[in-house]
Amino acid sequence: MRRERGARPVRVLIVSDRDIVRTGVAVVLRPYQDRVTVTGEGASVADALAEDGRATADLVIFDARLGGGDGLDEVDRVAKAWGDHRVVVLARPDEARFAQPVLQRGAAGFLLITIGGEELVEQIERVGDGAIVVDAGVAGAQRRLDDLEPRGQWAGAQLDLTEQQSKVLELVARGERTTMVACRLGMSEVEVKSHLRSAYRCLNVRDRPQALARLAQAGVFR
Known about the structure:
Rossmann fold; 2 domains; alpha/beta; 6-stranded parallel β-sheet; Arc Repressor Mutant, subunit A; 46% helix
């Protein structure tokens, strides 16, 4: 759906450590300058965190290396710096499983690097209007968005834990190791550790023992 005629173009900063990605995204967006304007490019997380980049753009398109183990932490840092719904993450098709963890960190979009120009522009405009978007090529995209909606029907919801965080913590509270938790929930170990880190932040604790103590104190997973 196109934005209203006369609406100001969405201003974006493109950040990637790969020249071909920065150049490619900028070229793809060039024919749509009346709808999306590239205000700058960066090659590192530091560029994404820089105040001048945030001051001149409405959102950042961030090319994350999610499968490497620290990509989610980088998304976390960028999302915190920009604020909710201002970070659109680009990922490879084999990283589609990270869609939900990325969105749970405050990103507004998870798009695959294979996305076409028109669709990319439409998704950027939707984010500019306050929506959360997931690439249509990601299996279960709508379910992933639905999972972000607060339902409050799971143990730990009263502590503002997401359903996935609660599932991970419940198994941890039973004494399961990370490898077994990943197996039981159909996740990678990286995803399990990511859920734990975000749960620790939510509970305002530093590590697993403190998290379990906090849950016990609240009467969760007894």
